Amino acid sequence: MLALMLLIRRFEERASQQYQAQKIGGFCHLYIGQEAVVAGAVAATRPDDYMITAYRDHGHALARGTSADACMAELFGKETGCSRGLGGSMHFFDKGNHMYGGHAIVGAHVPLAAGMAFASKYRNEDRVTLCFFGDGAINQGAFHEALNLIALYKLPVVLICENNLFAMGTSVKRSTSLKQIADRAEGYDIPGDIIDGMNFREVRDKLSEIVGSIRKEPHPAFVEIRTYRYRGHSMSDPASYRTKDELEKYRLDDPIIRLRAQLTREGKLTNEQFDQIDKEAKEKALASVKFAENSGELPVEGVYDYVYAKGAR
Amino acid sequence: MREITYRQALNEALAEELERDPNVFLMGEEVAEYQGAYKVSQGLLERFGPKRIIDTPISENGFAGLGVGAAMVGLRPIIEFMTFSFSLVAFDQVVNNAPNLLMMSGGQFNVPITFRGPNGPAHQLGATHSHATENLYASVPGLKVCTPATPRDAKGLLKTAVRDDNPVLVLEAELLYSSKGLVEPPDEELLIPLGQAEVKREGSDVSIICYAQTVPLALTVAAQLEEQDISAEVIDLRSIKPLDEETIFNSVARTHRVVIVEQGRPFCGVGAEICYRIQKNIFDELDAPVVRVSQEDVPMPYNERLEQFVLPNADKLMAAVKKVCYA
Question: Which of A20, A149, B137, B190 shows the greatest Cβ crowding within 10 Å of its Cβ?
């Protein structure tokens, strides 16, 4: 999982660089600082569990096993991208790896998560749906309607609020009437918990426990995972709404440094091994840029192939 | 053939599709224990059980989205809106999620979902409950929209919609739920393809293009016109999207005169699009400018006299036909 976290970090650094070089269009939201959240979640679940998230989705696709090549190619708008270059940064999909997007209307994917979990319960599967969203989503109507439905129908969903303290430029304090976000769940009679999102092991262990319980008997759970994004909301955001001191404080608590220290202390990781893992992550990220550059685009006429699915049953 | 109501026809369609495919389920407000606000789902809970006939809280955006998510992973939801006026609360799910996922995912996720329920102005329901939403939804690529006007079309189109691999909106005509018509017996499979208009009455002097609640209106007016020696052809679009241009153009090429009568509002209405397509493709066939009969461009008033003034009616349609026929 350290390798995954480093891959996400190095991939996002490359994405940032390529965005500045104008190889990537549209909006681009980076996941740097939040890596332990998704890494902990995949460590706690099975590859066939459903995953769905919001627009800050690069890390989630990588965590699900989508290749760095397919992710970077998507950012470049190339046919080899995970969504054939038709979705872009905010709409990463990978059906084979059970990655159900990449959704860019805040809160609008939480009802979709309810539907996916509804389907697994309908079919008597023990699959769990992981639904990620930011602290900005918790004040949307769709979020509230979905939470009520999820609780009412006892659907197997882990609602994961990645609280990075800011919805774009608005701090949680200025947007949310609650003292702590986890309390949102209480209003729907869903068990809620708070997790330190800078600590991979805490995320993994607490989610493992929750997921185990859901597999035995379908029910929802809500976790507020406290994390921090080092970069602005998107590439165009200089993040002037927070202080350098605040950022530095979180950088010292970096999830990668923390996991490295834990492993080193336990004698499970040497400096050489860490450097080797990081080197490989950097190489993969760099190679993904080359892959994306060398990939082709869909022919323009191809655009009509993605309006209606062919056939009926 | 036997005579049944529009409501029974829809009920049969639901029952047959639920019977045929275990992935089909019906969800919406009051669909189960209450047996449907308009009794379209009467008896289905008893027959198929609470796992497949599911009551929801009043959360259109929530349960429409739940349907989209379930469709992404292989179920075939039928989502009932108590009226399409309430679908506006779920506009984001119907417009921004259901039809966009195929493109956004590069073809990985299609959304086989049916949104259905009554649509269009009924009787004195006031501005919030009287929306004709077909032009809103037909403007969205990725959605299909049909508007049955007879029991037979209601059954055949709904069954086709459920089997379609795309999001389909079946906009039922609220005022026609109790109307009767001939439908094939239940043991005969009735599927009516989307995108096929039907000539409901043949004629040679003028083509009246209509759909949903304006079909009975057009047929009534056509009968009156016959007494005045004007032979009107009545074309029921049945589907707004895909649109059957061929049937429209063939008719216009024979009659050379067109009136479009729609239940919705005039600005950016369905009739505006059809009018554009006619003049673009068969301009030389026209002997008179195309005339549209629509609602007045105002929110719907409650007052009965004012409502009647706002809606398309027989007098307006008659006047429009005479205008294009220079009669």
Answer: A149
